[in-house]
Amino acid sequence: MAFLDELKKEAQALKEQEQNLTQARALEVTQSFLLVQSKLKTIQLYLQELVRNLNMVPLAPAKTYYIDGFGNIDDFRPEKYVVNTDRISINEKEFIKVLYLRFACKTEREIVIEKNIPSMIEMQRQYLWQANLKFQCTEFKNAKGLVDRATFAVANEIPVHIKFAADFEHARIFLSMKNFNGLTVNEFTYDAGEIDENLLDEFAKYLVGKPSTFMELGRHQQALRQKVASRRANAEPAYAKLDPERAARLDAEAEGSPKERKKGLLGSLKSLLSKE
Asked: Model confidence at 20, in pLDDT bands (50, 70, 90)?
């Protein structure tokens, strides 16, 4: 019985140890949650005040965007700033989970892109979808009834999405900026304790094109500089996602000899004229 009593004591000790570790972890997570929540509220108040000012007085300079298939446009004007939140409910209380800062960059330029090869048409379509740009595609069919030409009328407004997302477990806040520096996504990681007035001021300066040290702030940024997510929403990823065999098939189906293609176009024009 002495041995069994010893085993019982060991089991009880292990159980108590596990309970203590669980309680300590729960306390740590709770503290992290409260810290992150406090910082998100600080960010929210700052962004709301920033947006009020930006919507009254346009402080940000014009931005330049390169749109594949069209080229550079250097007169996109930021406007219509909005702050929104995603929340979670815990014990009938609402807490901030994600903060969004959204605005649009608008130009007066008309943006129309034309593609004359089926695979390039599909690539352009994927590129615009990936960049989150609205567009109207008009397709033209050849004599075989297959699309071999298309025009893309692209909206003259680029949506910019900036997101502050909580990592409650590790007491971190993730920042992502989509379509702010060109048609790209840039991501940053901050310890919750790093979120202060200085960082937010530098972020605001960066947002409106003023000299800023924002890109240098945060201990994670130096370590992640080589790995920071800067996924280009441009031709490279869009084109890479089009399967080569599918591209070849699209082109082969629509392709004919130069005479055939010319005849097909003339035939289509004659058909349209005859209807008139």
From this structure: low
Q: What is the 3-state secondary structure (H, E, C) of the chain?
A: CHHHHHHHHHHHHHHHHHHHHHHHHHHHHHHHHHHHHHHHHHHHHHHHHHHHHHHHCCCCCCEEEEECCCEEEEEEEEEEEEEEEEEEEECCEEEEEEEEEEEEEECCCCEEEEECCHHHHHHHHHHHHHCCCCEEEEEEECCCCCEEEEEEEECCEEEEEEEEEEECCCCEEEEEEECCCCCEEEEEEEEHHHCCHHHHHHHHHHHCCCCCCHHHCCHHHHHHCCCCCEEECCHHHHHHCCCHHHHHHHHHHHCCCHHHHHHHHHHHHHHHHHHC
- Sorted by where each begins, the domain ranges of the chain are 5-109+156-242
pTM of the model as a whole: 0.71
Q: By the 8 A CB rule, do 160 and 166 touch?
A: no
